[in-house]
Amino acid sequence: MKNLIKPILLSLIFSFSFSLAQPLQQDITQVVEARGYGPTQELRLRKAKLNALGEVVGAFIIGELSYRSDRDKIFENIKEYYGGYIESYQIIKETSEYTDIKAIVRVVKDNKVYIQGDNEIDIEDELNNYNSKREIIDYLDNPTIAFHVKVNSINIEPQPHTIRFKINSDVMWQPKWISDLETFVTEFTSKGKTSQNINIRMVSQRGYQPGLSIVQALFESEPKQSDEPMVCFAENSGNNVDHCRNLAGGFMNMPIYSELPIVIKGYDKNNNEIFKRKVFVNGNKLYENVYRNQTKKYFLTKRTFDQPAFIVYKNENAQFNIIIDVNNNIAEQIKKFKLEASI
């Protein structure tokens, strides 16, 4: 390959395989046969085990492909999460090309395996599955791939010692990012907890009774609350959330407050970066962070979030204007600007 080839862009690959034989229940086993290919016996066996797991519990996979021109090789880094583990296996056929195994796959919804003794618990599988989820969440926890910035117009105004650029832009969610996040948390994480109160007041023959609601009359107990973070989805910023799912460890890099950081980069005719500035724009139409026990009012309803949540308003976009002053000697060399979300 030619050394001029640039690094291949990261490719996010999601694949699923589900067994249609029976619905997954908590703590069940299933015997399957699987085959793995590879140049070494160790790799063939590992592939066979992964295929056995995928047949029963499904696989959520992120593939990261990169090219190194100095070594003329392509490297692939795979991050996988499975909702179960192989209890035992037996090699039934071994060749120089493939390995066939018969495996007992155990599906554990909560990923805990208790050993003998009331005072002991094996957390290895729980930790492994948590870390696998965390790797995928860390991959998605990236504003540069979550948001798209579209430049609508730019006006240039000369100043005594600078050139002023007025940039009008829109920032919106990348549809693929929302789809990837929604698919992952829906298939591989548990439901988050919220409580909803329907604001319908009861009316009797004696007239309106202030302060009394149907739900209050039926449900008096306080919901259980937790500090476990979750992600919620809604179509637009004024809409009630569609659903909430737990998010292992929560986002670390997504914006916490309403200010969304945007980086403006200027490039010269040789595509060299010669200018860079970070600004903050209001992104509360795109997302919102709510704390545990916070209540939000919607049309005819109000919802209390029993866990801290990052709400994604899927169909929203936010328009913003940026004004930047650039020194004349630098501004005259800028041939293009590039805007993108930042951490």
Structural description of this entry:
By secondary structure, the protein is of the alpha+beta class. The chain folds into two domains: 28-140; 146-341, no CATH class. It has six helices and 20 strands. Strands 12-11-18-15 form a four-stranded mixed beta sheet, covered by helices on one side. Strands 1-5-4 form a three-stranded antiparallel beta sheet. Strands 6-7-19 form a three-stranded antiparallel beta sheet. A hairpin with a 3-residue loop joins strand 6 (147-158) and strand 7. The model is unreliable at 1-26, 109-117 and 200-220 (pLDDT under 50).
Query: What is the typical, i.e. mean, pLDDT?
Result: 78
How many structural domains does the protein architecture include?
Answer: 2
Backbone structural class: alpha+beta
Distance between the termini: 35 Å
For the sheet with most strands, the description reads: 4 strands, mixed
Strand order of the largest sheet: 12-11-18-15
- Rounded to the nearest angstrom, the radius of gyration is 26 Å
Give the percentage of residues in beta strands: over 45%
Number of distinct helices: 6
Low-confidence segments, ≥5 residues, pLDDT <50?
A: 1-26, 109-117, 200-220
Q: Given the C-alpha coordinates, what overall shape results?
A: flat
Helical fraction equals: 10-25%
Number of DSSP strands? 20
SSE arrangement, N to C: EHEEEEHHEEHEEEHEEEEEEEEEHE
